[in-house]
Structures are given as structure tokens and as C-alpha cells.
């Protein structure tokens, strides 16, 4: 199984030096330096348990086993001189973790899986039962400005338990917080214009609670208007509308 340790990140978060860590866990500075500088270095469960106790965290917090994140450092070393590799600041493991936390505050646990050399990331809800189901892609481009695109803004909620408009509004605000934190210049949503209500009986069958996962592919324009987005219509298609907001 491939994994990397988060010792370096945990030390930085707790402002802990190698010298202090060595005294707390009674491991040599050289051993700890090796673990810190080589996150993919394997260590046994005794070491993991002891370090987790020192950091006051779970072993799960100490070890990152998400393959998409495990290989980020490798991809970065291979692509750092490529001008198209621009997501060190956007979809890095640290920033993906921050985005995952924002979406958890909205009320859904998501898997965030970067691909295409970390220029794009796929966001889907985890396998756990949830009253909110999401499936969309985030893409970043950089020309004179840096733009964050939300493509296929697909959100379904159990309408008996959750208000769809409120959840979509919360997602829009979460993406804006994420974009501002990373100094992105503008944020854009490509939204279907179809507002017909559609049934999702598959999702209805996944829960034991009363449910109604009917949904609209499109999003009520008023949600974007109240968040100060500008509507840009494509003259070549009537099936898609773009909502854009300049941040910086």
C-alpha cells in the first residue's frame, strides 16, 4: 500500500522542532529528520502510534493514503519546470484538504481527486449515506489572470430534509472563499439552462429516511445574482449559461 506521512506538516502546524520532537518521543534526531524529509519513508506501527500520541492526533491523521495526494510530490518534481503545471498553489494536497474542510462545513463529505497534472480536480461526495449528493469538476486556467472554473455544477439534495437553494448558495460561497484564499482573480460557473425537475429514484433507494432526491440540472439565477455574479450568455448555445465574478 502506498502512503506518505504528514510528520512535516504536523511539525509546522505545532511549531515543533526536530530537537523537541526527539525529546518527546525518544527517537533520534537523525531518524526523525529522515522521516520528515522523506514522507514516503515507511515506518512501523510502533513509531506511528508513538508519533500520533506526541502530536495528539490519530494515526489516520499522521498517514496520508489518498493516492492522488501521495503522488503530488512526485508529479511536482517531474513538472515543476513545465509552465503549464500551475496548481502547486491551487490543487496541492494542503489546499485540497482546505477545500474538503469547507465543503464539510456545507454538510457533505467529499472526495477530491486531482488529475491532468493537478490542473483539474474532481469533487464527489464520499460513499457514506448523505442527504446531499455532488459531482462536479474544478479547473484552473492562467493567462493574464487566474480563473477558477466550476464545471458541471451538479448538486442533488433530499428535499424533505435539505433546502436545495440554500445548499447551492453555500457551495458558491465556499468556492469563493477558496478562490480568495488562493488569490484567484475570477471565478466562473458554467450552468445548464434546463430547469425541469427530474427524478432520481436511485438516490431515493439509498436511504432509509423519507426522501425526495428530485432535482434540476440548472440553478436558480437568483442565487448567482444575490452573490453578485454577472450573467454571460453564449450566442452559440441556448443550453448553457455562464456566471462570472471578478474577485481581485
In short:
With 248 residues, the protein is an alpha+beta fold. The protein has 11 helices and 11 strands. The strands form 3 sheets. The protein has a 7-stranded mixed sheet with strand order 3-4-5-6-7-11-10, covered by helices on one side.
Structural class: alpha+beta
How many strands, what sense, and barrel or not for the largest sheet? 7 strands, mixed
Question: Shape, please?
Answer: globular
| Helix content percent band | 25-40%
Give a structural overview:
The protein is of the alpha+beta class and 248 residues long. It contains 11 helices and 11 strands. It has helices at residues 7-13, 18-25, 29-37, 45-55, 59-62, 67-70, 72-79, 93-106, 164-181, 201-204, 221-226; strands at 4-5, 63-64, 110-115, 120-125, 132-142, 146-157, 186-192, 197-198, 215-216, 230-233, 240-246. Helix 9 (164-181) links the parallel strand 6 and strand 7.
What are the main properties of this structure?
248 residues, 7-stranded mixed sheet, 38% helix
SSE diagram, text form:
Blueprint (H helix, E strand, L loop, with lengths): L3 E2 L1 H7 L4 H8 L3 H9 L7 H11 L3 H4 E2 L2 H4 L1 H8 L13 H14 L3 E6 L4 E6 L6 E11 L3 E12 L6 H18 L4 E7 L4 E2 L2 H4 L10 E2 L4 H6 L3 E4 L6 E7 L2
Parallel strand pairs: 6-7
Antiparallel strand pairs: 1-2, 3-4, 4-5, 5-6, 7-11, 8-9, 10-11
Helix pairs in contact: 8-9
